[in-house]
């Protein structure tokens, strides 16, 4: 079991912090869905910003142990993270629009579905593009 955990440490931590990020995303969305009369897409956008901030710092520090030697490297990493998260945000918007507006499904149920898809895609982007070891050490 210890060997499995050691071998899959990044994936396990990603799932743990992904769960935290999902709780933030769904929690913020739910607050806006239940307590405002705003369109569900506004709640989706606000929830996205909150969860991306949580995701960046947890992924950077604990999941991928990304270090940087300059502020320029840090800002490039942050910019790359937000760029790819913006791509998956558009995936969220489309999933929510199809689920809520076209299929008339429950908004919170569709939020759960969209989070599963987005977590998987975000891991791929983070692991192989954003936090690659050789890219985080360069100026």
Helix content: over 70%
Low-confidence stretches: 135-139
Average of pLDDT: 88
Main β-sheet description: none
Number of strands: 0
The number of helical elements comes to 6
Please give the radius of gyration in angstroms. Answer: 16 Å
**Strand content range:** under 5%
Oligomer: single chain
* SSE string, helices as H and strands as E: HHHHHH
Provide the structure class: mainly alpha
Question: What general form does the structure show?
Answer: globular
What is the end-to-end distance? 39 Å
Organism: Pediococcus inopinatus
Family: Belongs to the GtrA family.
Pfam family, one: GtrA_DPMS_TM
Subcellular location: Membrane
Give your account of this protein's structure.
This is GtrA family protein. It is found in: Membrane. 84% of the residues lie in helices and 0% in strands. It has helices at residues 2-7, 9-35, 40-63, 71-102, 107-130, 133-136. It is globular, with a radius of gyration of 16 Å. Mean pLDDT is 88; it is low at 135-139.
């Amino acid at each position: 079991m210890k060997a499995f955990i050691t071998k899959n440490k990044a994936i396990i931590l990603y799932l743990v912090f992904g769960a935290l990020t999902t709780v933030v995303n769904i929690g913020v969305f739910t607050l806006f869905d239940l307590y405002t009369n705003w369109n569900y897409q506004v709640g989706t956008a606000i929830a996205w910003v909150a969860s991306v901030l949580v995701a960046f710092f947890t992924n950077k520090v604990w999941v991928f142990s990304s270090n940087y030697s300059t502020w320029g490297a840090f800002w490039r990493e942050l910019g790359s993270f937000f760029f790819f998260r913006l791509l998956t945000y558009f995936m969220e918007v489309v999933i929510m629009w199809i689920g809520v507006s076209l299929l008339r499904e429950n908004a919170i149920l569709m939020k759960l579905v969209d989070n599963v898809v987005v977590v998987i895609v975000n891991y791929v982007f983070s692991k192989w593009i954003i936090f690659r070891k050789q890219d985080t050490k360069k100026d």
